[in-house]
């Protein structure tokens, strides 16, 4: 999962992109990059990227070189190769005059890379990540033609015929144009906004989430449609076309966990969705006759759902698990040992408030169960009488091939276990998961990717097992192939 933003037609575009990235930081904390183009001289790209948080990568000095009317920014979340600076984006093809940022994961990466080596004469080892692969394929599909809306539409069509997986892509050309497109199943998000300037011209921007554009004063933010290409010239002319649509399958995890609560994804408020997830869970708890004295969220994502649960149950909501905000999300740390250690450092309970009480803990999801086990241990030690764990997400039972880092089913605590067995494993009295019907009701959509919940995926995943084997091998040897 990564954060993307691109803007054209405004002086100081790098500043806008920087502040946009600050609002997309939650989508990736491994590194960031900004690419600009000074359109006074075609092909005059400037690129700065580095490991770490956005505010640590860029300084005042960076903006002296990141000049130009158009800019593209990327914040990286890697599932593999986390510490490899070569994997930071945007990637740039100087020869073609094209920079690219990618959010997603290409399922047939290894197959496509082998094809490029054997049929296109690409040197083995040239393409180290699926995002570089996307840039290479796009450049090949564009050929020697100049980059404009029609040639790009033709190239994106060719790319969509070859590539299987999830991808939202944004690009910056040597002319100062920007364009973006979403995969034919719309798995990863991308939105478009416009802003009027003082002299009456319109500036367009593309970003992963509406919060980044709203923060920068962009209005009328709308989704880039599934399989759609949006092309914006440096003069502010915007053209769009749906290139290919196979299904409408946005990732349900965007609303449940990943996106900022202020954002709208596919025109559905993340806040409203999380609130509804809580209301539906409360309905289920009441139906089962489970009693409780207090509702406690696992910070941060589940707070809105926990408020909804407390309201619907008529019992107090209390923030009794305190987060050290300077520890990164446990979910995106490299290995099991680091995750357990990070949980210990990350959360601390207000112990005396748990003593003798029946507690409802609300979490956004239960992946490996490490966080839940640690929390339950702390709460039990503090004297809780009864602990019920609520998950706003249904049980995760299958791998994600589209860029979320729970790749192996056997790592998932819900895999092959009943609710009673999961409760026993986690040390709680009851565990209650959202149902898939409840999830769809909350997100007001019947068209979602639910691959990790059902094992049925929107794309062909026949390359998935190879992908898993290769990725595991890469993880173990800490080489570069990476997802974003
Ligand atoms: S498999 Fe799950 S996590 Fe992955 S894209 Fe689909 S819904 Fe999202």
Rg result: 23 Å
Based on the structure, what is the oligomeric state of the protein chains? single chain
Assign a percent range to the helix content.
25-40%
Q: How many domains comprise the coordinates?
A: 2
CATH superfamily of the largest domain: Aminohydrolase, N-terminal nucleophile (Ntn) domain
Strand order of the largest sheet: 3-2-4-1-10-9-11
Mean pLDDT metric: 90
Describe the structure in brief:
The protein has 484 residues and is α+β, with helices and mostly antiparallel strands. Helices cover 32% and strands 23% of the residues. It folds into 2 domains: 3-249, Aminohydrolase, N-terminal nucleophile (Ntn) domain (Glutamine Phosphoribosylpyrophosphate, subunit 1, domain 1, 4-Layer Sandwich), CATH 3.60.20; 270-457, Rossmann fold (3-Layer(aba) Sandwich), CATH 3.40.50.
Could you walk me through the main structural features you see in this protein, from its secondary elements to its overall organization?
The chain has 484 residues and is of the alpha+beta class. The chain folds into 2 domains: 3-249, Aminohydrolase, N-terminal nucleophile (Ntn) domain (Glutamine Phosphoribosylpyrophosphate, subunit 1, domain 1, 4-Layer Sandwich); 270-457, Rossmann fold. 32% of the residues lie in helices and 23% in strands. The chain is built from 16 helices and 21 strands. The protein has helices at 13-22, 54-57, 60-65, 109-119, 130-142, 149-162, 210-215, 253-258, 270-288, 303-313, 336-346, 370-381, 419-426, 436-442, 451-454, 464-477; strands at 3-8, 31-37, 45-51, 70-76, 91-93, 98-106, 165-173, 178-182, 191-196, 202-207, 219-223, 228-232, 238-242, 264-265, 268-269, 294-297, 321-323, 347-349, 358-363, 386-391, 430-433. Strands 3-2-4-1-10-9-11 form a 7-stranded antiparallel sheet. Strands 5-6-7-8-12-13 form a 6-stranded antiparallel sheet, with helices on one face. Strand 7 and strand 8 (178-182) form a beta hairpin. Helix 5 crosses helix 6 (149-162), helix 9 (270-288) crosses helix 10 (303-313) and helix 9 (270-288) runs antiparallel to helix 14. It is globular, with a radius of gyration of 23 Å.
């Amino acid at each position: 999962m990564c954060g993307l933003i691109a803007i054209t037609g405004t002086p100081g575009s790098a500043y806008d992109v920087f502040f946009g990235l600050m609002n997309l930081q939650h989508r990736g904390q491994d590194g960031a990059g900004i690419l600009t183009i000074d359109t006074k001289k075609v092909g005059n790209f400037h690129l700065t990227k580095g490991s770490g948080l956005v505010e640590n990568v860029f300084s005042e000095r960076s903006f002296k070189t990141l000049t130009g009317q158009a800019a593209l920014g990327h914040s990286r979340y890697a599932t593999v190769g986390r510490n490899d600076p070569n994997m930071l984006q945007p990637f740039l093809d100087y020869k073609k005059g094209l920079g690219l940022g990618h959010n997603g994961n290409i399922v047939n990466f290894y197959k496509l890379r082998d094809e490029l080596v054997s049929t296109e004469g690409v040197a083995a080892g040239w393409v180290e990540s699926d995002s570089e692969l996307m840039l290479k394929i796009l450049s090949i599909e564009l050929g020697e033609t100049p980059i404009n809306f029609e040639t790009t539409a033709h190239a994106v069509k060719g790319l969509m015929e070859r590539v299987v997986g999830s991808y939202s892509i944004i690009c910056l050309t040597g002319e100062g144009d920007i364009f973006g497109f979403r995969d034919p199943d719309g798995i990863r998000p991308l939105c478009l906004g416009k802003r009027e300037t003082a002299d009456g011209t319109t500036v367009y921007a593309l970003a992963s989430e509406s919060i980044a554009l709203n923060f920068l004063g962009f209005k009328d933010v709308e989704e880039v449609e599934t399989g759609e290409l949006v092309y914006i010239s440096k003069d502010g002319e915007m053209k769009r076309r749906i290139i290919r649509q196979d299904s409408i399958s946005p990732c349900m995890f965007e609303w449940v966990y990943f996106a900022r609560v202020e954002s709208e994804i596919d025109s559905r408020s993340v806040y409203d969705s999380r609130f509804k997830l809580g209301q539906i869970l409360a309905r289920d708890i009441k139906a089962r006759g489970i009693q409780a004295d207090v509702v406690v969220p696992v910070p941060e994502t589940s707070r809105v759902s926990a408020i909804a649960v407390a309201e619907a149950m008529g019992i107090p909501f209390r923030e009794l698990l305190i987060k050290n905000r300077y520890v990164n999300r446990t979910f995106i740390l490299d290995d099991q040992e680091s995750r357990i250690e990070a949980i210990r450092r990350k959360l601390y309970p207000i112990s005396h408030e748990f003593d003798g009480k029946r507690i409802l803990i609300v979490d956004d999801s239960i992946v490996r169960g490490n966080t839940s086990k640690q929390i339950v241990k702390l709460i039990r030690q503090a004297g809780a009488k009864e602990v019920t764990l609520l998950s706003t997400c249904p049980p995760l039972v299958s791998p994600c091939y589209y860029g979320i880092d729970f790749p192996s089913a056997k790592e998932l605590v819900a895999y092959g276990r009943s609710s009673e067995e999961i409760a026993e494993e986690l040390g709680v009295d009851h565990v209650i998961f959202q149902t898939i019907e409840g999830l769809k009701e909350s997100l007001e959509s019947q068209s979602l990717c639910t691959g990790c919940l059902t094992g049925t995926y929107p794309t062909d995943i026949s390359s998935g097992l190879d992908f898993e084997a290769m990725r595991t091998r890469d993880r173990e040897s800490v080489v570069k192939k990476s997802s974003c």
